[in-house]
Amino acid sequence: MHELRTLIWKEITLEWRQRYALSGMLLYVVSTVFVCYLSFNLKRNELTPIVWNTVFWIILLFTAVNAIAKSFIQERHSRLLYYYTLANPQAVIISKIIYNSLLMLVLAGIGFGFYVFVMGNPVADLTLYIAGIALGSIGFASVLTLVAGIASKAENSSMLMAVLSFPMILPMLLMNIRLAKNALDGLDRSVSLDEISTLLAIDLIVIALSYLLFPYLWRS
Amino acid sequence: MFFMKKAWWKILTVIILYYVIFQGLLGTVPRQPILNETIRNLYFHVAMWPTMITLLLVSMVFAIRYLRSSNTVDDDKSAAFAKAGILFGILGCLSGSLWANYTWGDFWPNDPKLNGAAVGMLIYFAYLLLRSSFEDEQRRARISAVYNIFAFFVFIPLIYVLPRLTDSLHPGNGGNATFSSLDIDNNLRMVFYPACIGWILLGTWITSIRYRLNVIKRVQEERVAELSVNHHGAARAVND
């Protein structure tokens, strides 16, 4: 537990020291939202709630892939070797997942705020929608952390990251979009229980697999 | 595997597949309004999916074995099974697309099962890409084994859980009747189950050939490397 806390704290300190990465990601979200806003400017009334929802989730997907891809790639080889001597791999992966979830929560929160600010807010059940975003952020972070670890081992890692992660994340993305649509239409919350439980189950499977598999990845 | 080198299971494969193809083309099938004669595709399309899942499952088991043993043989087997599984997945998509054209009126109707299968194929194409992006054999084996296990556990909810939550054109989903309701006299079953076994055996056969080719290639490469080393050594000796 203590090790985990130290590792998470290390990630946060590192991030804070190189603030350009963090501000870069924030700028990425904001400018993508703005590009979407301007692109839909030609025909505002064509922006139906479904399109609104889908565009938001696609922005979130690209943000997640870009933000999490760097979680292993940014680390120098020698520094990884240094961690290897100090920490045990399970603590490393869990700390990375927790840190990436926090990062995604921040990015998605700011992104959603700005998105609502420029694109309007058709959401009927805001609490459920925000809960959906939180679930999605954590889910994306947990799937993408292990994929980033895999991709970082190969040479052409940024392309590989996209190819490996998009189909992997699709089940989760579809579930999230459906949950978000339920919230958007303000359906009764009991309708969304199926989606929430499936999302939680996928999260659980993915985190358990990351926990079990990361030691093998780490060693190479 | 222990029975790999025996001949009996290959003979069994041929016999079963002969039976399936004859029954598939000539056997009696229930007459159904929209399906008509296309119901015969049951033995060729539907049977692809259990085959693919079985081959991918075996591939994942070998990936786990590789992670425990670090034996290159296990990785070779894992890769060969995955490739055969992908082959059956592609065949399943194609035969399904053809069937869909005659019954649902479209080569690729928007159906969660089709899309799930297509995304599953993408996941496994990415596996092949991942394998080809490593030079070092040990590294490739280890990392692609990790990805293989991860991919399988993402793939299963994709094709088994998600389609059940939505409406689908496929039988047994979204309130559609399952095939067993059409199969009054168990005629279809009598061919469908052997068909699954036959295709799985065929997949295993393809895998074993690929695997053995791989072994031959590796041995040859080693021999060439050895020869060139000897050659250089001899040349150096002459020069000295």
UniProtKB/TrEMBL annotation, chain A:
Alphabetic keyword roster: Membrane, Transmembrane, Transmembrane helix
Membrane topology: Multi-pass membrane protein
Localization annotation: Membrane
UniProt GO MF annotations: heme transmembrane transporter activity
Predominant cellular place of this UniProt entry's protein: membrane
Gene Ontology BP annotations: cytochrome complex assembly
Keyword set includes Iron: no
InterPro entries for this protein: Cyt_c_biogenesis_CcmB
Cellular component terms per the entry's GO annotation: membrane
Family from the record: Belongs to the CcmB/CycW/HelB family.
Stated name of the protein: Cytochrome C biogenesis protein CcmB
Automatic annotation (TrEMBL), chain B:
Signal peptide: none
Gene Ontology terms for molecular function: heme binding
Subcellular locations according to the entry: Membrane
Stored Pfam families: Cytochrom_C_asm
Record's bilayer topology term: Multi-pass membrane protein
Main location: membrane
One biological process term in Gene Ontology: cytochrome complex assembly
Origin: domain of life: Bacteria
Keyword Membrane: yes
Keywords: Cytochrome c-type biogenesis, Membrane, Transmembrane, Transmembrane helix
Transmembrane annotation, as ranges: 7-26, 46-67, 79-102, 114-130, 142-162, 191-213
Domain Cytochrome c assembly protein span(s) in chain numbering: 11-165
InterPro entries in the cross-refs: Cyt_c_assembly, Cyt_c_biogenesis_CcsA/CcmC
The protein's name: Heme exporter protein C
Organism: Persicitalea jodogahamensis
